[in-house]
Design a protein that fits this description.
2 copies of one chain form a homodimer.
Chain A: E1 10-15, E2 20-34, E3 39-45, E4 50-54, E5 57-61, H1 65-77, E6 85-90, H2 95-101, E7 108-112, H3 116-125, E8 138-141, H4 145-151, E9 157-163, H5 177-186, E10 187-196, H6 204-217, E11 222-229, E12 237-244, H7 253-257, H8 268-274
Parallel strand pairs in A: 6-7, 6-9, 7-8, 9-10
Antiparallel strand pairs in A: 1-2, 2-3, 3-4, 4-5, 10-12, 11-12
């Protein structure tokens, strides 16, 4: 049963299957539309800036999206010796894209998002995340990412970032071996995938661990999960999982130590620390 | 304005000053009493085990208290070469005490909790946290911790763990220079304090940073904050701050690597990683 919130000044997301709910105090509903794929809402909150909600699930807030977007991009980018072509699957709010664009070695960014409306709405309500949308290196493909990846040229992408919704509904196929096989084929020799992999304390057995298995079954040699805080997501604790054709390690360590762009969360120490495995997840 | 939750099957804590609320699905209210100091409630939740609530604020749940209790104890204990006498300020649920008692080098544990009812209720509803309450090394003092610390013998305690409620109301004095001076005087030469220090993203400027200043003003040479997830606390991201008469570093690194007791979260890698400072907190 969902939480009954009769007070219209709060937005509440009930995560009924894990028995929790998270609420943000809101000032107004700024935008609501039904796109071809989902219900898109933007709330103005009292303390977290703007809030994007897709089909009732919180996607991001102005205040704390930096945690997720930085950890979905920089650990992977610095784990590759020369990332030239980066593909982002999903990522419609463009926050991940913006972080990737900060790496000057990247020559091409392809974003494959099924719902163009998410990007257009983000340009309006999260303009600070969309500052790289007109970067000449960036190419938007508004289409199905599984088909796009199936048809991608072999050995053409260095890093694939899967910045998708949860593995229920439209994004389900993005958590399966078949998709990972397409990714592996599209990747160059030292290529790697990084994908959001849900809450370590709520979804490890049901989602994260099976992801490792599917990635390995698709032929990836090494998989590793990294951890970070994310207040607006269920349990406030989130993860991303990397899969590599070879080994996963911090290759561009000098660049990570001497960052030539601004970050709010990520730095060299955070990179190394993010991979520390809590004891209860080692079994 | 607090969230209006009309559904009695959820317990909701509104953190109105930070504009968030967190809810847990509940099955029943197991216990409620008004002690001399506060309102004590125990709920049975659907997915987080039992839940202790003091004056409307969530203290701990069966499911995720290990994160907090392990990080309030082991990083400090392994940062001291020979912790013999450990004092716990607050800690009425006894979860921290239990973790401390796992260190066989500890000869004496004194717990100074103002409200004996919290401990008695915990013995009933969190018996798994109270397994060391009758350890012959343990001494309970149910009294005011500031007065107790003021009157403590100089050079008599190796580690002081301040496992208190938030710095509003009764616990306010525990976040002040005067208390830290009492602590410093009671500590042995290599002594250190560790204290819960709220949410890095919600309370850094208002609580954590001032704590560092107060600790340093009290004469502590070094202060450091460590970070960990804690789903049932506001923002799901929490911190503890250490203050040392000398330097803070992992002294018993061999013991931390070769743990001779079970942990669910803490291990050697987690210890080192917990101190990584997010970039936005470095300014």
């Amino acid at each position: 049963m969902e939480i009954q919130n009769t007070d219209s000044t709060w937005f509440t997301e009930s995560a009924t299957e894990i028995g929790t709910a998270f609420s943000l105090a809101t000032s107004s509903l700024l935008h609501q539309e039904k796109s071809a794929y989902q219900n898109i809402e933007i709330y103005q909150t009292k303390t977290f800036g703007n809030l994007m909600v897709l089909d009732g699930f919180i996607m991001l807030s102005t205040r704390d999206n930096f945690l997720y977007h930085e950890m979905m991009s920089h650990p992977a980018l610095f784990s590759h010796s020369h990332p030239k072509h980066v593909a982002i699957v999903g990522g419609g709010d463009c926050g991940t894209l913006q972080q990737v664009a900060q790496h000057s070695c990247v020559e091409k960014i392809t974003q494959i998002e099924i719902d163009e409306r998410v990007t257009r709405v983000s340009e309006q309500y999260f303009p600070e995340l969309c500052t790289s949308n007109h970067d000449p290196r960036v190419n938007f493909e508004f289409c199905d990412a599984i088909e796009w990846m199936r048809d991608a040229h072999a050995d053409s992408i260095d890093i694939i970032i899967v910045d998708s919704t949860d593995p229920i509904g439209p994004a389900e196929g993005l958590f399966r071996k078949q998709f990972y096989q397409y990714c592996r084929s599209a990747l160059t020799d030292n290529g790697l995938v990084i994908q959001q992999s849900e809450s370590p304390i709520a979804h490890w057995e049901s989602i994260t661990k099976p992801m490792h298995h599917e990635m390995q079954a698709a032929g990836f040699k090494q998989t590793k999960t990294l951890f970070f805080p994310q207040p607006v997501y269920p349990t406030g604790w989130w993860s991303a999982t990397m899969a590599a054709k070879n080994d996963i390690h911090l290759v561009r360590d000098h660049d990570a130590k001497q960052l030539n762009f601004d970050t709010k969360y990520y730095n060299y120490d955070i990179h190394l620390s993010a991979f520390a495995m809590p004891s209860f997840l080692k079994t």
